[in-house]
């Protein structure tokens, strides 16, 4: 019998009453990571706020093949806040390389194999990972400023809003040094783009491995349901985030959440 190894890759996921999506993705994702003998973990933070959250919690505990699922619960968030939620799951991770995985996304064995191969060659920490299912234009400079070092652009197309946009990864030490996801951004919209752009200012190399499994289809309206303003136009928050990101990059202010904890406290969900 082989010895269980410490995780290298941590897929970091969150949920707040999104049971319809999670019930489709979690069994698949647990089955995939079980094939890697501990080298890969699934971090799942369930933000519990009501009876619906508790029912989802009970369902999660009934799942099989969850030996490598790092399940956490948090009762400190009542209104959904994506940057804070993602920070909470990422800071709960045990691996050295963190990959955001929304609860409507499926893990691809192809992605894991390629990333572990880079790690075997001691090259993984040189890369920022992107699982976006569309195309990326590299060597792209929107502003002619010497201190603006982001050199890529997500190209719009059929996959632009398919849910794979936020499937990004980076070394844990870089995540912490950047301050994680910017909690000064609106509760939804643009936090993944913001982190990715700040990260590639430090690490120039992007490993683009488009996921070979389409995410569960969801609308922006569904995502807004648990936020403080569920009736807002998602684009309004996204545009506000874009302005904050632009200002940060142009002023070379890559670190966020200064002098404050990243994310929220959690407890072990299996006990």
List keywords for this structure.
271 residues; alpha/beta; 8-stranded mixed beta sheet; two-stranded antiparallel ribbon; 8 helices
- Output the helix-strand order: EHEHEHEHEEEEHHEHHE
Tell me which CATH architecture applies here.
Alpha-Beta Complex
CATH C-level class? Alpha Beta
Strand content: 15-25%
Major β-sheet strand ordering: 9-5-8-4-1-2-3-10
Taken together, the total number of domains comes to: 1
Largest sheet data? 8 strands, mixed
Per DSSP E runs of 2 or more residues, the count of β-strands stands at: 10
Q: Over all CA atoms, what is the radius of gyration?
A: 18 Å
CATH H-level homologous superfamily name: Spore Coat Polysaccharide Biosynthesis Protein SpsA, Chain A
Helix content: 25-40%
- The secondary structure category is alpha/beta
Total of DSSP H or I helical runs spanning 4+ residues: 8
Task: Please explain how this structure is put together.
This protein has helices at residues 19-33, 51-61, 82-91, 109-120, 172-178, 191-202, 220-224, 234-250, and strands spanning 9-15, 40-47, 69-74, 97-100, 127-130, 136-138, 152-154, 168-171, 205-208, 267-268. It is α/β, with parallel strands linked by helices and 271 residues long. Helix 6 packs parallel to helix 8 (234-250).
Lay out the secondary structure.
Layout: E1 9-15, H1 19-33, E2 40-47, H2 51-61, E3 69-74, H3 82-91, E4 97-100, H4 109-120, E5 127-130, E6 136-138, E7 152-154, E8 168-171, H5 172-178, H6 191-202, E9 205-208, H7 220-224, H8 234-250, E10 267-268
Parallel strand pairs: 1-2, 1-4, 2-3, 5-9
Antiparallel strand pairs: 3-10, 4-8, 5-8, 6-7
Helix pairs in contact: 6-8
